[in-house]
Amino acid sequence: MAKRPTLTTDSGMPVADNQNSITAGPRGPVLMQDFHLLEKLAHQNRERIPERTVHAKGSAAYGTLTITHDISKYTKAKVLQKGKKTEAFLRFSTVAGERGAADAERDVRGFALRFYTEEGNWDLVGNNTPVFFVRDALKFPDFIHTQKRHPKTNMRSPTAMWDFWSLSPESLHQVTILMSDRGLPQSYRNIDGFGSHTYSFINARGERHWVKFHFKTQQGIKNWTNAEAAQKVAYDRETHQRDLFEAIEKGNFPKWKFSVQIMPESDVDKHWYNPFDLTKVWPHKDYPLIEVGTLELNRNPKNYFAEVEQAALAPSNIVPGIGHSPDKMLQARIFSYADAHRYRVGVNAHQLPVNRPRVEANDYHADGTMRLEGKPYPDAFYEPNSFNGPLEDQSYRDPPLKIMGDAARYNHRDGNDDYRQPGELFRLMRPDQKEQLFNNYKAAMEGVPVEIVTRQIVHCYRADPEYGLGVAKALGIDFKPQTIAAE
Known about the structure:
Its EC number is 1.11.1.6. Belongs to the catalase family. Heme binds at residue 337. The protein is 26% helix and 15% strand. It has helices at residues 35-45, 140-147, 158-166, 172-179, 226-235, 239-249, 304-309, 328-344, 420-428, 431-444, 450-463, 465-475, and strands spanning 58-67, 85-94, 109-117, 120-127, 193-194, 199-202, 208-217, 255-264, 290-299, 322-323. The mean pLDDT is 93.
């Protein structure tokens, strides 16, 4: 039997006794000189870092992205060339709940991907829905406040949620998905994933295309009713975590088909919708899915805190051949995600193993809490310099994006049809799915003031009369459509 390693302090000093504190006699008080005791207690006090403001509860696994189709005419990104296999990391999450929340709750699911490419880390931080509740990040903090605890009652507030949604018609598309059967998936293996935002591809000729990313589950979509989920939560708050971990441990590796939608740069003004609006989808009849490859998860993390809680994914992490777009929400997330990690994990979070790229990173960042190492060129700690420090490379420059207009605060609701796509989604539902949608509204709106309920019903009715009348009937509201005809 191999000799076991010797227990040490953080500094590497061997520990002689890890069972007993140093005291003044067998019954005496503990002495301050017991530095081993103090080190253990002090470290325990700091074992928790601030949880994520959103997506606090998550599960994750490693895997592989395999590219099986040629899309080189759209992008020069090496990670997306046919035949390429790249290590991946995928963190699933719920959006609204704290770390102790149950997995089986009606909520949007986070679908945050990292690819450790030969050109650096590429992070695609999305959800299991192709749209979101708001299109302007100025409203994002307000929205998230409604999902958290009421400052007086310290409980979740359905009134706050529905008050915000009913005053924000652009949220109807996402709310319709959330209240449908897909708002309560059975497991993380049984959801689709989306980049949600519009991104850009740059090809070798310097041409830009707009792109949407899709990951379709090969395990099939499976959902629970409210009653089924309540039964699960009564016995297990970790249903999704357990399912993902155990499936991978058994070798039952989940897979997703990776596809993209491609829009020529010149098509931006050809549609009734804004292609950069996060509350809208691109119709597949206009931009059909193009298959790219397969994502497989096949390895569980060895330490959840080190590899999942400290994971710092951000849409600012892109690689040559993949870029951003004028999507207002994406533009804000480029800053906010990376900044959240600087606060939550630390300014040097990028040096931790789960966040560290698999290629050499060369920058001029200095110092900060938990700096793990110095630079290989100590004299070149500024730029420009004469000491062989890293230099810019103009060959990676993206083609210019034409932007024009007067700087102002434009009303994003003016001239924006926020009812067409929710109505189309509703009409795709089977009768039993519609009935479940109505009942889910009823369950979610319990105790909400009638004027807020009625305001939301008006939005549903404008999307499709059957939608509004069905919600009204389920809630026992005497809704008269003629009252909104003149509005």
